[in-house]
Amino acid sequence: MSTLPLPAPCARCLDRGYLFAPVGERARAELCSCQVDCQLCGGSGRLVQSKDGALFASPCRCRGAARRVAVYNQAALPRHFCDKGFERFRTYEPAQDQALRAVMSFAQGYPKDRKGLCLWGKPGTGKTHLMAAAIQHLTLEKGVACRFVEISFLFSEIREAFQRGVSALAALAPLAEVEVLAVDEIGKGRGTPFEQDTLDELLGRRYNADRTTLFATNCNVSFGAKELTANGEYARPGGDVDASRDQDLRQRIGDRSFSRMAEMVQFHHIVAKDRRIPVGS
């Protein structure tokens, strides 16, 4: 079978096929010109090869690139995390390195293991960056439909939907049905019955459908007198745990949501200093 010679690597996108181009508050990507004017297929999206005098057509790699870029843009990642993949995550503490390895293993192995992750710890330890990196890999490298949502924005959107007469079932459908959902700042809010009911409905529907969910939280994750360590195993609470009621995730989201969540994910405790605050401040 005759094959076409491979073109030289693209200097603009480094042969990824896409470029990052944030718009407004959202991270976005766009198809690189090397995919629009593909040297392999001439922009047709098909490769024609001959074997024993017969012609065979197969999809060109540029065809999949356009779909993956569209899936990334639909994920609604915040602008701040545009182009913040695994390679841009800097580790300063052993727990950060462990979390990086765990999230990379999840993203690279998906969908072999569909169990999600919950990253918990103090602010500024890289939790959201790691979730965004997982979404970036799943969408742009695998074409997996994902969605990112910050929990307080979710509650605001549902309230607005109710005011327009939209039912909870319809309002939550896009998040309940997406293949992989990333929920940032879970546990944040006032902990009102409305918030707990909304979260319970969302997690219940994803739990029953066996869909993958990622979480990040600044709250403590504890199981009664015990907590979970970075590798997901049980251990006695240590010095980094704040046992106060208003910082405990189970208390914040309610027993029912927490129970479902505990079965849906593996917990990883990131014990590290706030990287946003300069050393010595």
Account of the 3D structure:
With 281 residues, the protein is α/β, with parallel strands linked by helices. It folds into two domains: 18-47 and 56-72, no CATH class; 83-269, Rossmann fold (3-Layer(aba) Sandwich). Helices cover 37% and strands 18% of the residues. It has a five-stranded parallel β-sheet with strand order 6-7-8-5-12. Strands 9-10-11 form a three-stranded antiparallel β-sheet, with no helix packed on it. Helix 3 packs parallel to helix 4 and helix 6 (168-177) crosses helix 7. Mean pLDDT is 85; it is low at 232-246.
Layout of helices and strands, plus pairs?
Blueprint: E1 18-20, E2 29-31, H1 33-36, E3 46-51, E4 54-59, H2 61-74, H3 94-109, E5 116-120, H4 127-142, E6 146-150, H5 151-163, H6 168-177, E7 180-184, H7 193-208, E8 212-217, E9 222-223, E10 226-228, E11 234-235, H8 249-253, H9 255-264, E12 265-269
Parallel strand pairs: 5-8, 5-12, 6-7, 7-8
Antiparallel strand pairs: 1-2, 3-4, 9-10, 10-11
Helix pairs in contact: 2-4, 3-4, 6-7, 7-9
